[in-house]
Fold:
Amino acid sequence: MTNQVSGPSVVSLFAGAGGTDVGLERAGWRTVLATDVDAACMATLNAAKQSSILVEGLADAAYLQEAALMLADVRDLSGEDLKPDDAPDGWRPDLLVGGPPCQPWSSAGLQKGLQDERGQLIDHFVRMADELKPHFVLFENVRGLVTAIGRTGKPGEVLTDIKKSFENIGYATAFATLNAADYGTAQRRVRLYMLASCDHELPNFPEPTHARGEDLDLFSVRKSWVDLGSFIDDLPAAAIGDIVRPSPTREAELSALRPGTGLKTAGRTESNRPGGHWGYRQDSFVADLNLPSRTIRAATTPDWVRLPDGTHRRLTWRECAALQGFPYEWPFQGPVTSKFRQIGNAVQADMAEVLGRSILASLQGGQLGRKPKSSSLPAEFGRRIKYTTAEHRTNGSHRVRVRASVTSHE
Structure:
């Protein structure tokens, strides 16, 4: 690997199928190394590099063309392993990025948190920042991390520990939850982001450019959300082999639903929900084409689309990848189940681009003559932690039993 790169350098941990790198390279960054433990994801990255797909807006640059790609477990790596072979003494990447696996904190999982070994990978992300000393750090994860229960059983403790861990190694931090739909994507995907710097001004979280139509008025400078129907219409027609249609029985059930609703799960009675705690079944939801899509998940059961003739089909894996901001020709490798998993677990590339531009502006502003200062956690986080604390006190023991029951049947 060489350190002669054509833009500010990025080391990408937990790179997955490359969503973060796609977005950052569109923003002007260049990935010098990307690594992940998932062989299917690394096969996708290698295929993408070999495909020489041009970076949108940059006619002379292809995605990942300057990146070394490493299949490895971060727990087995040191900072030295991630530096260019011919890097001079004291070389530091401009930016370290990563989104450690979200399943321990995701509402779609069992939420085992630190009891899940994947939940402990955050410590290795901090370790890598300490060893590599990048100028900036970008961290992404699910919103559930805001209220995640820490080592002493307190909601919000995990996030506080992450903040303290980075501050202890010399980084000022800022956190926010951002909805991708508010930045012009056709997906409602809310994620937690951390921006950190040790020697530059902390980047600003960009102001939203879009909003739900009913929240706009004549004087608003924001645009309406991009709706799923328009987004799909602008894509190439779905390949016949990618289209999944429901069984006759499921077709009848879906036809009875209003778009934006789905078949309900069985209610789970809780102390403060005598009518049951229910949700929509993830495999039986009819998308509202007048809104951005719901969050794209790592499953082969994306939402159903109602066609003009009233019948239904699922969103295809290529459509889901496009909603995640990938170039339409991105060569995902493996069977369709693997493709959906890689796509749903990826960082939304358009959001990586938006944040990458903000970080780049701070980098170009030059180093400070002082240490930057951390921002306070948003007030919204405090409200959510307070609510979760009360909810945990009321229903926590019941939910622990439910998770234990599910685990025992895995």
The radius of gyration is 22 Å. The longest strand covers residues 172-179. Confidence is low (pLDDT under 50) at residues 104-114, 402-410. The longest helix spans residues 379-408.
